């Protein structure tokens, strides 16, 4: 087990730049997440928030700066190696396996710990209790589920990974208010259970209700950061993201 110094964040993103060819997407982005914390990254389209998450997951390699997980550099690792270190992902667009059943999709999340048969069975039952619709449709092809049900499936799959850190990209995108409430009800339970979460979200209102702290990105720069309560009360955030006049 890696022993962290008292002041070492669980996840550290320090001064990263990211380029897509000649186009620079991130400019010196820094953030951190402590163990057991929920941190939200907010911003509009093309703000750089999803690129930040992809950098943590090893899907994008920063051109400069560093990323550490539990004090270990990960910014040069490929995505499978990052996942092997205990990171779970709920990607934008869900990325479920449409031809496979709901149950098969869920068990794919548990594959890295496939020898823990008893614990997987308990975790699977927990997922079905959290998302009764998945229990009802466990034998159904995942591609036939509604968008909200597919988001539930992606969350359940990540939970079965039992990651030390869960990275979630735009969980409310394209969902009806009813499904958004159902998804966030589960995320609030994960928070209460002490799960460490890095959340990228356009729905600033609900993200700030869930988060302990948050960062606001604009055009690849961090323009605001602080406690979720302070940012929710910030006039700039209220006007730009919370619909205040």
Automatic annotation (TrEMBL):
List the lineage, top down: Bacteria, Pseudomonadati, Pseudomonadota, Betaproteobacteria, Burkholderiales
UniProt key word ATP-binding: yes
Stretches that traverse the bilayer = none
Q: Which organism is it from?
A: Eoetvoesiella caeni
Q: Keywords, A to Z? A: Amino-acid transport, ATP-binding, Cell membrane, Membrane, Nucleotide-binding, Transport
Question: Which GO-annotated molecular functions does the record name?
Answer: ATP binding; ATP hydrolysis activity; branched-chain amino acid transmembrane transporter activity
Q: Which PANTHER family match?
A: HIGH-AFFINITY BRANCHED-CHAIN AMINO ACID TRANSPORT ATP-BINDING PROTEIN LIVF
User: Has keyword Transport?
Assistant: yes
Protein name from the UniProt record: Amino acid/amide ABC transporter ATP-binding protein 2 (HAAT family)
- State any GO BP term from the record: L-amino acid transport
The domain of life is: Bacteria
Question: Cross-referenced InterPro entries, in alphabetical order?
Answer: AAA+_ATPase, ABC_transporter-like_ATP-bd, ABC_transporter-like_CS, BCAA_Transport_ATP-bd_LivF, P-loop_NTPase
């Amino acid at each position: 087990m890696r022993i962290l110094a008292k002041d070492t964040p669980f996840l550290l993103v320090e001064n990263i730049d990211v380029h897509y060819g000649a186009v620079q997407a991130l400019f010196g982005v820094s953030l951190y997440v402590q163990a057991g914390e929920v941190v939200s990254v907010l911003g509009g389209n093309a703000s750089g928030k999803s690129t930040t998450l992809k950098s943590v997951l090893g899907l994008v390699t920063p051109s400069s700066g560093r990323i550490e997980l539990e004090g270990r550099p990960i910014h040069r690792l490929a995505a499978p190696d990052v996942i092997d270190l205990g990171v779970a992902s709920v990607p934008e667009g869900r990325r479920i396996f449409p031809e496979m059943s709901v149950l098969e999709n869920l068990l794919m999340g548990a594959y890295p710990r496939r020898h823990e048969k008893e614990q997987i069975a308990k975790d699977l039952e927990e997922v079905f209790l959290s998302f009764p619709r998945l229990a009802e449709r466990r034998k159904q092809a995942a591609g036939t589920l509604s968008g909200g049900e597919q988001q539930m499936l992606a969350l359940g799959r990540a939970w079965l990974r039992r990651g030390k850190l869960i990275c979630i990209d735009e969980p409310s995108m394209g969902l009806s208010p009813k499904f958004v409430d159902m998804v966030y009800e589960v995320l609030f339970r994960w928070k209460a259970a002490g799960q460490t979460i890095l959340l990228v979200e356009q729905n600033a209102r609900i993200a700030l209700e869930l988060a302990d702290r948050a960062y606001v990105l604009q055009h690849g720069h961090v323009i605001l950061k602080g406690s979720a309560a302070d940012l929710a009360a910030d006039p700039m955030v209220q006007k730009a993201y919370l619909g205040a006049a």
